[in-house]
Amino acid sequence: MRAQAELDVREGRKHNIQLGFSSQRLRDMGDGIVSQSTAALFCGLATIKKPKRSSERFNLSEASADIVRYRLHGPGPAGAPFLAVLQVDNAKYEQMLVNTLGPIELWALSTTPGDTGLRNRLYEKLGQMRRCGVLPGFFRPARP
Asked: Mean per-residue pLDDT for 116-122?
């Protein structure tokens, strides 16, 4: 299966196919997949026993290696930090980013009694809404 995945990675671009792989184990990605990758995202590596191995495998700068060792602690109230490593036009970019939820998602996922009560009252008055994939921002009532 790994050989097929490596072949697909090598030949996928000429067929206009993009592949994405994810794993909790560094060794799951073979050298063929890693060498052909144009992007790598590192999440929550501070708990890994040997973060140095990932730094060496992806040839990270010292600053990015420190991020892998000390800053990727998983999601929290301020968001979920991750390290993005991108190959673009023979240049390598390494950037720590934080994925955060916007105000709509934060309110929609809130479990405080005040927020859930207000949401329930709004659903009763307005009905639940479901996002339609046709136009951004266009909503239609959810089917019962």
From this structure: 87
Centre a 10 Å sphere on the Cβ of residue 64 and count the other Cβ atoms it contains: 21
CA distance 98 to 84: 10
- Sheet architecture: strand order including 80-88: 39-43, 80-88, 91-99
In the numeric block, the tokens 């949401």 are attached to 119
Closest CA to 97 of 79, 82, 85, 87: 82
Distance of alpha carbon 138 from alpha carbon 133, whole angstroms:
8
- pTM confidence score: 0.68
Structure tokens at 139: 């909503």
pLDDT tens digits, one per residue of 6-34: 888 888 888 888 888 888 887 888 888 88
